[in-house]
Amino acid sequence: MSKFKVEFTLKQHTPIIHFQSEQMGATLRATELKPKFDRFLKEYAFGGKIPKEFKISNEKDALNYKMKIISSEIKKTDIQKINSRNGKKIPDPLFFGDMGNQSNPKKFVQAQETVVECISFKEDLLNVISKYFESFLANTNFGTRQSKGYGSFYINNKIFDTSLIKAQEVYSFQTKNWKNDLKLFYSFLRQGINIPKEFNKDCPKTRFYAKPLIFLYAKSKGWTWDKKAIKEHYFQAELKNQKKCRRGSDTLEFVSQEKYLLRDLFGLSTDQSWKSYRDNIKKTNDKVARFKSPIQFKIIDNKVYFWVNDVYKKFLDKEFKIVTKRGNDLKLKTPSIEVFDFNDFFKFVQKVDIDKVIDSQYHSQQEFLVLKRIMIDIKKAQK
């Protein structure tokens, strides 16, 4: 191998969701990988400032090397599957965004093997690249929905090294179906799970129900979470009816004067459709228009790793106007950095007794068995 080139052979663990799936080489691309890697090196190898001798002249923060990616045995599959019984499309558990146009729809793209070549006449720079590339891959996914585990690559034939992850804590659980497990677990964290058994306008029957862990965490702190606060303010009649149907439900009954916007700490949703209320919930803040989930999932073989990126701290102590068809006078804030820490939340999650927080009538359901397995793994496995 040339002294002016370093080469890495990667294994692709999860597919990339590609918006140009019909083009040649529609997999991991240097146009995405190199800028991300350059930013990673700037922060972690060079302490925030790239040395002048390593920069491309007249280009801001671009390192002076070329990158080439060679992928073999590329497989493309449809994101949506077709139900063999009725011919209807079955959506992917974790992807529900724009599917692209009919002539060039988004697809899952996966390569059997991917080789990344970095070429430079600066040997010292190549040494830095060699030292940090594995750490970069450990912390990074690619393509659409990368925070949910898509586009996960790692060095081929190497054991995943959690010590390379730039986070205070790393959690993990085993899986045989990472998409379904991750969707179920994430719902359990953020909004809870309510799977209807049969539809009834007044009092729907439930096949499986689990309170959201962020609600239980808020309750342990003496806080009212945002969903209850919005119902109290805009949907009093509906809330009253729900209390009649589900007597004793603490998600409906718990009251506190300290109210916070909490679910959006998992990623800001500025426009939500509350279909059963025939209304839309909009959240507006002049300085915050977008905030992606700070929880990063990385799938390696049959294991899901996840951790929290500190970027969420920039979103703390921000006030939002909650707007509905019924008015726009409710304001809620995210908690301040003094009272909320995501790792404290996950310490709370680790201590949760799932047999107690989910009613015994649901313990025979498959969703409970999956969640219990995940929770046991999370309690055992920690960086």
Quick tags:
383 residues, alpha+beta, Alpha-Beta Plaits, 2 domains, 10 helices
Question: How would you describe the overall organization of this protein?
Answer:
The chain is α+β, with helices and mostly antiparallel strands and 383 residues long. The chain has 2 domains: 5-164, Alpha-Beta Plaits, CATH 3.30.70; 171-380, no CATH class. Helix content is 28%, strand content 27%. It is built from 10 helices and 20 strands. Strands 1, 2, 3, 8 and 9 form a 5-stranded antiparallel β-sheet that branches. Strands 15-16-19-20 form a 4-stranded antiparallel β-sheet, with helices on one face. Strands 10-18-17 form a 3-stranded antiparallel β-sheet. A hairpin with a 6-residue loop joins strand 4 and strand 5. Helix 1 crosses helix 2 and helix 3 packs across helix 10. The longest helix has 17 residues, at 123-139. The model has no long low-confidence stretch (mean pLDDT 89).
Secondary structure blueprint with pairings:
Blueprint: E1 5-12, E2 16-18, H1 30-44, E3 66-78, E4 81-82, E5 89-90, E6 100-101, E7 104-105, E8 107-119, H2 123-139, E9 153-155, E10 171-174, H3 178-190, E11 193-198, E12 205-210, H4 213-221, E13 224-225, H5 226-234, H6 236-245, H7 250-253, E14 259-260, E15 271-274, E16 279-284, E17 295-300, E18 303-308, E19 319-324, E20 327-333, H8 342-351, H9 354-357, H10 366-380
